[in-house]
Amino acid sequence: MSQNSFYITTPIYYVNSIPHLGHAYTTIMCDIFKNYHQHLGEETHFLTGTDEHGDKIDKSAKEQGMTPQQLVDKNSQAFRDLLGPIDCKSDDFIRTTDERHKKVVQTILQKVYDKGDIYFDEYEGLYCLGCERYLGQDELVEGKCPDHQKVPEKISEKNYFFKMSKYWDQLKQHVEANPEFIKTENYRNEVLGLLKMEPQDLCISRPKERLTWGIELPFDKNFVTYVWFDALINYISALGYPEGDSFKKYWPSSHHMIAKDILKPHCVYWPTMLMSMECPLPKQIIIHGYWLVDESKMSKSIGNVVDPFKYCEKFGSDVFRYYLFRAMSFGKDASFSHEDFIAQYNADLANKVGNLYSRICGLLRKNNENKIPDLDIKQVTSPLPAAFEVLQRESAAAMKAWKPHEYANSIISFAESINKYLDETKPWSMLKKEEEKQQAFGVLKTALEGVRIIYCFLAPIMPKTTKTVLLELGIDPEDIPNQRKIFFALSNNAPLPEAPTGFPRLTSEE
Ligand code: MSP
What we know:
alpha/beta, 7-stranded parallel beta sheet, 4-stranded antiparallel beta sheet, 15% strand, binds 5'-O-[(L-methionyl)-sulphamoyl]adenosine
């Protein structure tokens, strides 16, 4: 059953921040992978949502003179409102304040407690409010949390602990035996490094004297659940764990996409929690790097955030999605710069894709009444069917390996081979001679099939433009799963648009 399904999740975002490019990136990438798997004919499920409990929310609500519930309702909506402008279509949006979620968290806590995997103890540690977790000495840089640039607070209190150490070796063996479990490779090594350290247990509660904004422990009313133990469970509570049909259908093909900031909770806490509750582990955890601005991680606390709404409004969501998809070498950090955004757009979309389509249409407008030539191009000898095979092979390998930038590269290389084919055959010269006209039409129609294929492959990334262009070519956008597999599909004599959709060149002032 799991073979034909594909479940992908974003982290659930903290609602004390406003959505910025970093959040938009992970959500867009998940949406693109979901679309891609849909085009492969799989049944997909895409989950995103918001993480709403914890110290930070409680503090910000007090500062803003609101109740925590009022604050989370307002801010969760901002993350939901991001989806439309970035053109992401999630199948579900989970909030950790949803009753459906709270119920599952409590069921799991009780199960793990009854199993003897939770104990009560006193603990003193260094707590980073930004990370909402205790940090080890080895994680500090010059005594500070490297992500939040703050000295963590020394806290000592009685709490409940999860016996994470009990599952440490089992997890290590799983990571070692399954090279695909954690992608990309550099982060897998980082996790193996963490697992070489002394096994740790995890503090999973907060006393109500200090914090009330959380899910009450089912076995002790004086405590609420630690946010990470609560939040990670969203991935299965949203599917109706343990009995829900969606859980049975999608969990075996689960993929969590995150950035490296939350590697430890996802690659250590979560799998050990699942082991304790006797639930299979996610299929893959996919980790990407940071978007940086001037060498610093983009974050609200530093104040260097790029606003995704503005970019989508000005340039359209497709163009923004394309840039993010193409420009970050997945797994590594990338710097966001407006100049680079414009340069990449011009180099790929304006010069190689849009220009190609408009050149072909221009010649057919002048010489063939703006129609697709009426001829069988199966007989035309051209390098494009072979280039198409390369595209199919390379793009599939790139997506399987979670290397989206390489998927984009394979499309652009294919566009380059079509441009080269035109430059070499020069149909504009052939059109001047009556006896070479048919040959020129053969070239143009073959190249136009190439344009159709480019858009079928761009479809997961740029759904809107793809839909428009395919309709212009007389192709049903619903048929993409089939269209992306074939080289010959255009209808003879179908009319072409007067003004084909393209990508006008931009200057960096724009
Ligand atoms: N609430 C937790 C996650 C719980 S999941 C069970 C959390 N929230 S967060 O709002 O801080 O979101 C972190 C995630 O946002 C990152 O893992 C990443 O997906 C995305 N990003 C936030 N800033 C980013 C960059 N500057 N660059 C890339 N991704 C970024 O952690």
